[in-house]
Design a protein that fits this description.
The complex is a heterodimer of chains A (275) and B (282). Chain A is mostly helical and 275 residues long. In chain A, 77% of the residues lie in helices and 0% in strands. Chain A is globular. Chain B is built from twelve helices and no strands. Chain B is flat, with a radius of gyration of 26 Å. Chain B starts with 6 loop residues before the first helix and ends with a helix. The chains are: A mainly alpha (275), B mainly alpha (282).
Chain lengths: 275, 282
């Protein structure tokens, strides 16, 4: 009896939290399907009366949504490539080589996590003005890469630590240069960690609002977050557009995240335990 | 702590470095080059974006820089700090930041560990399906989470009040009162943060040998005793780095506070330190 109760209780708690986790997403879906005369409805039905794809049509044809999507893909794509290239190499050096300043670099990585981009934004903003990089993607890409890098380097280093050094040794005896030993032997073995690094770099650029809102000033140049906020600002009229846009932007990211979630547990925990 | 797992590696690296030399460069010089190529770009970018502005911030914090003296400021000592500490708003924001961080992280860890422990029980069917559903809040872009929750806290049409009324309570005007707006921001942040801790805790639980629980079972230990004497101590080393990171992230999380309160509404009462600084700067 007691075990039955505890089982029912466990399932009930899990179900409650699944409800809490999924409910806001289902609300976005509902609102995005509402016809424009019913946006302000007090109904809690998941599929609203008179459900229509009108918001999606309007979003794709009458707003700069696709333009913003392209901008965000460009920025996030470049940040991902930069992140993977730089974190995989720097993490490798920190994992395999002793050198002066290594300890300082490792604690420095943790320290950088304590400064939010926001706090550094005013000086960066002044520098970007001086360099003429306001309203351009170059500044944003550099800032995003720098924000994502410390965590990614840390993560890669933790993963390399779990790969035995004897593998490179063997490669070196067979005549490989240090560089070849790294990218032909070790890098392929670190694939799971590379996947996580790519995911994190991508997400940090894809999701960033505050820096983009300051640096990008033309509607044409906006990335997705800044653009969607525009809809939400005038809430009464464009709430449906906002919901449709949010769903279109979130679904691929959620899907990607869920597919990669098995890597997440091993990748993150290994890094954490080693850290 | 950082180097402990790696000590054996030092010896092996030395072996690596003694491989046959190629023409021209000495062994040590070639190793330095290799390291520079590996580390250089990262170091440059991170230093330029993080370290330089930080030093700059420290410098102007001792100066009389304002909008009129943007270019030719000079150092004036500690006056700016004195001004900050005299500002009554600073202390209330500071206090709010502490409350914000402590409450959010406590809920993140509490809920995360609770759900991980429930999910890890051997009788639970469909573990990966549950896990995937529970991870969803982490996967949703943060700004969408924040803006959506802001909509759902709407007095008349938001789902939160509709649910409260449905359960027989009376609607709360969440966003027009400083206290409830702050609570709304905390609820939002708790929602998006617990899956991270759950994933970390799940990873930690998997590394605890089942035999320990079987032995405890034989000794007649209750579920709570098992949690207290086996799960908690063995989970701690895994959770501590995660909690440290989580604390820093929460302390610095501007997205949620800023977007849920629409920039500090009502009356700039809903701020933590980062959003306060952002508001002051732009």
């Amino acid at each position: 009896m007691k075990t039955v109760l505890s089982r029912v209780g466990s399932y009930a708690t899990l179900a409650l939290f699944v409800f809490i986790a999924v409910f806001p997403i289902s609300r976005i879906l509902t609102i995005s399907l509402r016809p424009s005369d019913q946006l302000l409805s007090r109904s809690l039905a998941v599929i609203p009366d008179g459900a229509t794809l009108d918001n999606y049509r309007q979003l794709l044809t009458e707003t700069p949504f696709l333009r913003w999507l392209g901008n965000s893909l460009l920025v996030a794509g470049v940040v991902t490539i930069t992140g993977v290239a730089l974190a995989s190499t720097a993490g490798y050096a920190l994992s395999r080589h002793r050198f002066t300043g290594r300890k300082a670099a490792l604690s420095g990585i943790l320290v950088t996590q304590m400064f939010p981009a926001t706090m550094l934004l005013l000086p960066l903003y002044i520098v970007l003005i001086e360099l003429g990089l306001i309203n351009s993607y170059i500044g944003i890409v550099i800032i995003y890469s720098a924000t994502a890098l410390p965590f990614c380097v840390w993560q890669m280093k933790g993963y390399y630590d779990t790969i035995p050094a004897s593998l490179e040794e063997a490669a070196r005896i067979d005549g490989a240069t240090p560089w070849q030993a790294f990218y032909k032997v070790i890098l392929p073995l670190a694939a799971p960690a590379l996947v996580i690094t790519a995911l994190f770099s991508f997400m940090s650029a894809w999701n960033e609002y505050v820096v983009a809102a300051v640096v990008l000033q033309e509607v044409e140049m906006f990335t997705m977050p800044v653009g969607l906020k525009l809809f939400q600002g005038s809430m009464s009229s464009q709430w449906g557009l906002y919901a449709a846009g949010s769903l279109l932007v979130s679904l691929p990211v959620i899907a990607l995240f869920l597919v990669l979630s098995r890597y997440l547990i091993s990748g993150l925990t290994l890094g954490a335990v080693k850290g | 702590m950082l180097n402990a797992p790696n000590d054996a590696m030092g010896v092996e690296t030395a072996t690596l470095a003694s491989a046959p030399r190629r023409a021209g460069l000495s062994e040590a010089a070639r190793r330095r080059w290799f390291l520079a190529v590996l580390l250089g770009p990262t170091a440059v970018i991170v230093l330029a974006v993080v370290a330089f502005p930080f030093v700059y911030n420290v410098a102007i914090s001792f100066s009389n820089m304002n909008i009129y003296t943007l270019r030719d400021w000079e150092l004036i000592g500690l006056d700016q700090y004195a001004a900050v500490f005299r500002e009554p708003a600073f202390w209330s924001v500071f206090l709010k930041t502490i409350v914000w961080t402590v409450v959010c992280v406590a809920f993140h860890v509490g809920l995360g560990v609770l759900l991980a422990v429930l999910l890890h029980q051997s009788f639970v069917k469909g573990k990966s399906a549950w896990r995937v559903l529970l991870i969803i809040p982490w996967a949703v872009p943060q700004y969408i989470t924040a803006l959506t929750w802001r909509g759902e806290f709407n007095f008349e049409f938001g789902a939160v009040n509709l649910l409260i009324e449905g359960l027989g309570g009376s609607a709360i005007s969440w966003l027009s009162d400083p206290f409830t707006a702050f609570v709304a921001a905390i609820i939002t942040n708790v929602w998006l943060g617990f899956p991270f801790m759950m994933v970390i805790a799940l990873g930690g639980l998997q590394s605890i040998p089942r035999e320990l629980y079987e032995a405890a079972e034989v000794d007649g230990a209750s579920a709570w005793t098992q949690f207290r004497t086996i799960t908690a101590p063995l989970l701690r080393p895994v959770m501590i780095p995660a909690v440290t990171l989580g604390t820093i992230w929460t302390f610095n999380n501007i997205n949620v506070v800023w977007l849920v309160s629409n920039g500090g509404e009502p009356n700039d009462q809903t701020h933590i330190l980062v959003s306060y600084v952002y508001e002051a700067a732009f």
